[in-house]
Amino acid sequence: MSIIAWIVVGLIAGWLAGMVMKGGGYGVIGDIIVGIIGGLLGGFLASVLFHADTVNGIDIPSIVTAFIGSVILIAVLRALPGRSPV
C-alpha cells in the first residue's frame, strides 16, 4: 500500500477512534500517527489471529482494521502511568 493510502486510512481511522474513545484527542497530526500505528497494529493482530491480510488499500476492511487497532492503541496509551485521564 502506498504512503498516501496509509496516511488517508490513518487519518480516517485515527479520527474515528478519537471520536469513539472521547477525550482531548491528539490533534490532526497525532490522529494520523495514531491511525497509522493503529493500522499496523490492527493488521498485525488480524494476520496473527485470523491469518488475514486486511490492510491493503483505501477500503472499508482496511479502515475497520485500522480503526480497531487505533482504539486498542488509544486504550493502551491512556492506561500508561504518568498520563492524566482525559
Topology (elements, then pairings):
Layout: H1 3-21, H2 27-50, H3 60-79
Helix pairs in contact: 1-2, 1-3, 2-3
Describe the structure.
This protein is mainly α. It has one domain (3-79). Helices cover 73% and strands 0% of the residues. The protein has three helices and no strands. α2 packs across α3 (60-79). The protein is globular. The protein starts with a helix and ends in a 7-residue tail after the last helix. 34% of the residues are buried.
The total count of helices amounts to 3
Shape designation: globular
The largest sheet, given as strand count, sense and whether it forms a barrel, is: none
Compute the average pLDDT.
80
> Portion of residues in helices?
over 70%
